[in-house]
Amino acid sequence: MCVLTLKNYLKNKTDTCGVIFSNVFAMKIKRFLSTTPPSALTVSAILLIARVIFGLMFINHGIDKWASFSRLAPAFPDPLGVGGTISLSLIIFAEVICSIAFVLGLLFRVFILPMIFGMATVVFAIHAGSPFATKELSLMYLTIFILMLISGPGYFSLDSVIYRRINRHNSNI
Fold first, then answer.
1. Whether 111 contacts 98, CB under 8 Å
2. Dihedral sign for Cα atoms in the order 131, 132, 137, 139
3. pLDDT 10s digit of each residue in the chain, 173 long?
4. How many CB atoms are located within 10 Å of the residue 107 CB?
5. Would you kindly state where each structural domain of the chain is located, as residue ranges?
6. How far is the CA of 47 from the CAs of 8, 31, 87, 104, in angstroms?
7. Could you give the 3-state DSSP secondary structure of residue 111?
8. Residue 151 contacts by C-beta under 8 Å, 6 or more apart in sequence?
9. Residue 43 vs residues 31, 38, 39, 57, 156: alpha-carbon distances, Å
């Protein structure tokens, strides 16, 4: 009896078991290193995971600001000239409300715009002259949000569910 293990393969590369193992192993390596594009469902699953991880991380920043609103509001930066309290309210809206829609994939491209605008304001206005390390996290979020705006929310989103229902309803008319 032949057990397909790496140990058996390394001991005796010429037996039948080793040849079978070698072919199976080579096929798995070839598939792993392949440049063939992933399926649409795989891409949608990756987009879902990215939405959940980065959305929840972003929500956390907004909840911290919301919890400290009265302490932060008087001294909060005002790059738009609307006052610190309104600026803080706008960034909390982007970080909490828009992030919830981002995670759910609901009106995705509409709600991601305030998130992009908020991070662009932080990177290019508030921390414009700051060292890279100061604006690194904001720049990372900005990059991710721009890439997600381009890619869309994917199949596993409320936008996709709504779109499919509308199309199903329109095809029945």
1. yes
2. positive
3. 455 555 555 555 554 554 555 677 777 787 778 778 888 999 999 999 999 999 999 999 999 999 999 999 999 999 988 999 999 999 999 999 999 999 999 999 999 999 999 999 999 999 999 999 999 999 999 999 999 999 999 999 999 999 999 888 777 76
4. 15
5. 1-36, 40-165
6. 40, 22, 30, 11
7. helix
8. 47
9. 17, 7, 6, 21, 10
* 7-10: Cβ within 8 A, 24+ apart: none
How would you label 123-160 residue by residue, b for 16+ Cβ within 10 Å and e otherwise? beebbeeeeeeebeebbebbebbeebeeebbbbbbebb
Q: What does the alpha-carbon distance between residue 90 and residue 118 come to, in Å, rounded to a whole number?
A: 8
Query: Residue 77: left if φ>0, alpha if ψ -120 to 50, beta else—which one?
Result: beta
Q: How many residues would you count in the chain?
A: 173
Q: Which pair of structure tokens corresponds to residue 41?
A: 């469902």
Tokens 């302490």 map to which residue? 71
Indicate the pTM of the whole model: 0.77
Structure tokens at 47: 């987009």
Coil, strand or helix at 105: coil
